[in-house]
Specification:
Blueprint: H1 10-33, E1 38-42, E2 45-54, E3 60-67, E4 77-78, E5 83-84, H2 89-139, E6 157-161, E7 169-173, H3 186-189, H4 193-202
Amino acid sequence: MAKVFEGKTTTAIKTAIRETAFADLIAVFSEIYGADSVSVVGNSEIAVGCGIVKDKDGFERECVFTVKPVVKDYEDRKTATKTIKAYDRLDEAEAYAIAKTEKEKTAEEKAKAKAEKKARDEKARAEKKKAKEKEDSEGEDPSDDCKISALYKSKVYAKIEPKLYDPFRCYVKGKGQEDGTEIITAEGLKTDRAAIEKIMQSLPEFIKFI
């Protein structure tokens, strides 16, 4: 059965409530943690030793929390500047539950958006890398279907393509037009087997045919 508080003034009633709550808290904490672990440290403030912890030097220290009961207004009251509404425990609990749910929902949405952005960024980077690799590969040889190892970029290289010449098509390139090296295209070699054989004989041993 709920206790009934009476008094001549609001202040007297709230004082009675606070004193009762204070005594009840001391009794409850003393039962849970032991009377030696409960201390009064201020006006209506209790300190409770709830356990032991080791500090960074390895010494044992007491874990302490404090409690100070605050009596809420049980009816509306006015001050010089504002009106304070009566405290409704159930309304406050409902408001807290709603706020907590909204906060969790917002956190989930942010986490989902972050994960989706990460996935998009990773996909974009992968596509960019793939496009760059394709661009580099295509840039090494004027023929769309030619690929050559980066190891031989600055050297003479050749590619054999059995389907495009009988028995092969050969594309040969020097270190660059700017040094005066002649560039012979596959088209120019199609009708000149002697030129192909001459070029093949002059290629360095390290040339890889792929």
